């Protein structure tokens, strides 16, 4: 029998997979971990900090910032979880009772069992109808039916992205084109799969715009290195940058993808969060299907959506979908096989996706109240987006582009050289040090731009716009107080 001291331990940093160690997810990285430690200190009554509470701006988690969930979907879900409530229909609007009965019939009244790998058929039909209606309206004409068999319900959009990359990436010679700044899910997953990131850079001075020429440059560099670019990720509206891409740019991307035979991974989870006047959301599906020549048949698109973001903010329910366009049936079967490794998406998330894509219609009992709640949340987010940018622009050494959509600001920090030198001495990125000190001195939890990648020599920070109006002033005052101290001390 081996002595305990001589037994090999295989789950240590020294013995773990290098791919796992290389994967980084800054949104929940060291600063978020430190904020948890501070929260525990404060809960114990600690008085060593300059603040009594932390304010978390690191994740897009709306209901954690006092955003009230919409009444209609929660009433339906309450009946589904406790069908005995149907004995008291007077407690609910008529359309809530009707929808709950429909879902109970479609599910057999069993919500605790596995479903098909792709999810409930009725929910996939709702998603298909939603996509079809959305794109027909944007195009001004019928673009054809969406086949529910092309819809995969998933545990949030993150699972869909992971499955796609698993299907595509087989080693370092396989590349994924990613916007820089990017959402770190993509680079972290690439590291786990052993693939290569092919960065294309958004132009901050032009409001985080991009062009097909930028894509071609990135594609060419990767090709010269022996990397085959298999897909391009486009996040629209942008995370962390908050831009909304014009339709002309989307068309350029489609034309380029057609030329190079590249799959478009359309991360469209913020499609309802558009605040800038004159900006509109156009899906890649719509752009492909309204293109000319061979493009409608040949350009492949995998579109991602979730109940976590957008207007619903049901992050914890982990509802999402992926729609496949122009993907052969045998390839989709392989994607389904990979989804089956997770058995099936969680049922509550699937139902929330059904409720998000098939909302109360005119004439329904809940229509007016649902719209009032929806419009109230939207208007509040729009006002907070404008307020945050206005206040950030008042701070010396901070530049911030307009938040056109999504839930984030990504301001540029003009940090003094001495501050940057101090960070380098500590083997830290300057914006990481800025964010960590902001947390420890003012209790504001943010994410350094280096966690999203950025143009070399620049420094950024990502902030959510989610704190309620009564808290936003406190947020900006804390940031301003901290940043003014940095400028004064290091300039």
Structure commentary:
- The structure is a single chain.
- The strands form four sheets. The protein has a seven-stranded mixed beta sheet with strand order 2-8-7-6-5-3-4, with helices on both faces. Strands 10-14-13 form a three-stranded antiparallel beta sheet, with helices on one face.
- The radius of gyration is 24 Å and the shape is globular.
- Helix 2 packs parallel to helix 16 and helix 16 packs across helix 17 (469-490).
- It folds into two domains: 18-66 and 381-490, Aspartate Aminotransferase, domain 1 (Alpha-Beta Complex); 114-357, Aspartate Aminotransferase, domain 2 (3-Layer(aba) Sandwich).
- It is α/β, with parallel strands linked by helices and 491 residues long.
- It starts with 17 loop residues before the first helix and ends with a helix.
- The protein has 17 helices and 14 strands.
Top keywords for this entry?
14 strands; Aspartate Aminotransferase, domain 2; alpha/beta; Aspartate Aminotransferase, domain 1; 491 residues; 12% strand
């Amino acid at each position: 029998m081996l002595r305990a001291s001589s037994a090999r331990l295989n789950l240590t940093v020294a013995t773990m997979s290098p791919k796992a160690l290389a994967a980084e997810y800054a949104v929940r990285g060291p600063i978020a971990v430190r904020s948890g430690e501070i929260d525990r200190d404060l809960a114990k009554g600690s008085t060593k900090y300059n603040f009594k509470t932390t304010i978390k701006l690191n994740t897009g988690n709306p209901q954690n910032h006092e955003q009230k969930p919409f009444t209609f979907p929660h009433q339906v879900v309450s009946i589904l979880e406790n069908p005995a409530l149907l004995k008291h229909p007077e407690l609910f609007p008529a359309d809530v009772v009707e929808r709950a009965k429909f879902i109970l019939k479609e599910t057999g009244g069993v919500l605790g069992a596995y479903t098909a790998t792709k999810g409930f058929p009725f929910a996939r039909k709702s998603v298909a109808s939603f996509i079809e209606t959305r794109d027909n309206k944007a195009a001004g004409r019928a673009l054809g039916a969406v086949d529910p068999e092309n819809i995969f319900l998933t545990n949030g959009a993150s699972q869909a992205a992971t499955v796609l990359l698993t299907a595509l990436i087989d080693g370092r010679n396989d590349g994924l084109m990613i916007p820089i700044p990017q959402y770190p899910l993509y680079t972290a997953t690439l590291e786990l799969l052993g693939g290569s990131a092919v960065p294309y850079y958004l132009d901050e001075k032009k409001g985080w715009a991009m062009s097909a020429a930028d894509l071609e440059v990135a594609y060419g560099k990767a090709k010269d290195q022996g990397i085959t670019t298999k897909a391009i990720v486009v996040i629209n509206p942008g995370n962390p940058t908050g831009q909304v891409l014009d339709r002309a740019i989307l068309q350029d991307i489609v034309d380029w993808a057609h030329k190079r035979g590249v799959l478009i991974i359309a991360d469209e989870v913020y499609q309802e969060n558009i605040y800038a006047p004159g900006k509109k959301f156009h899906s890649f599906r719509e752009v492909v299907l309204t293109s000319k020549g061979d493009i409608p048949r040949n350009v492949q698109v995998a579109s991602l959506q979730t109940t976590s973001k957008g207007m619903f903010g049901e992050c914890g329910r982990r509802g999402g979908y992926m729609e496949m366009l122009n993907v052969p049936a045998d390839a989709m079967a392989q994607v389904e096989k990979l989804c089956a490794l997770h058995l099936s998406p969680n049922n509550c998330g699937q139902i929330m996706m059904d409720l998000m894509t098939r909302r109360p219609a005119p004439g329904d009992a809940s229509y007016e109240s649902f719209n009032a709640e929806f419009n109230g949340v939207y208007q509040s987010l729009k006002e907070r987006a404008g307020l945050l940018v206005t206040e950030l622009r008042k701070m010396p050494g901070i530049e911030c582009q307009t938040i056109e959509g999504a839930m984030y600001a990504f301001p540029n920090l003009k940090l003094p050289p001495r501050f940057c030198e101090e960070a380098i001495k500590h083997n830290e990125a300057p914006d990481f040090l800025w964010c960590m000190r902001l947390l420890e001195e003012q209790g504001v939890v943010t994410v350094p731009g280096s966690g999203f990648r950025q143009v070399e020599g620049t420094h950024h920070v990502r902030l959510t716009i989610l704190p309620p109006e009564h808290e936003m002033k406190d947020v900006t005052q804390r940031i301003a107080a901290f940043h003014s101290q940095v400028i004064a001390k290091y300039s």
